[in-house]
């Protein structure tokens, strides 16, 4: 995941969130954020990607912050 290794500016992150919101509204890509329940800390992202509503099919993707990977449960 090349995007995960790039340092992003606040402007980059805002543009990314605006793009994700637009794609969510048009049902092109449904991104979800993952937060620790007890602290509210952002720990990752998940979503439905490459959606084909006419079939229907989609891919499920997820990303967990490497600093938290061994502390949360992720299943395939």
Quick overview:
With 76 residues, the chain is α+β, with helices and mostly antiparallel strands. The protein has 1 helix and 3 strands, in the order αβββ.
Number of helices: 1
Q: Which ranges are low-confidence, i.e. pLDDT below 50, for 5 or more consecutive residues?
A: none
Biggest beta sheet attributes: 3 strands, antiparallel
Radius of gyration: 14 Å
Silhouette: globular
Mean pLDDT: 85
Number of β-strand runs: 3
Structure characterization notes:
Strand 1 (30-35) and strand 2 (42-52) form a beta hairpin. This protein has a 3-stranded antiparallel beta sheet, covered by helices on one side. It is globular, with a radius of gyration of 14 Å. The protein has 1 helix and 3 strands, in the order H-E-E-E. The chain is an alpha+beta fold and 76 residues long. The longest helix has 16 residues, at 10-25. The model has no long low-confidence stretch (mean pLDDT 85). It has one helix at 10-25; strands spanning 30-35, 42-52, 57-64. It has a domain at 30-76.
Provide keyphrases for this structure.
76 residues; alpha+beta; three-stranded antiparallel beta sheet; 1 helix; 3 strands
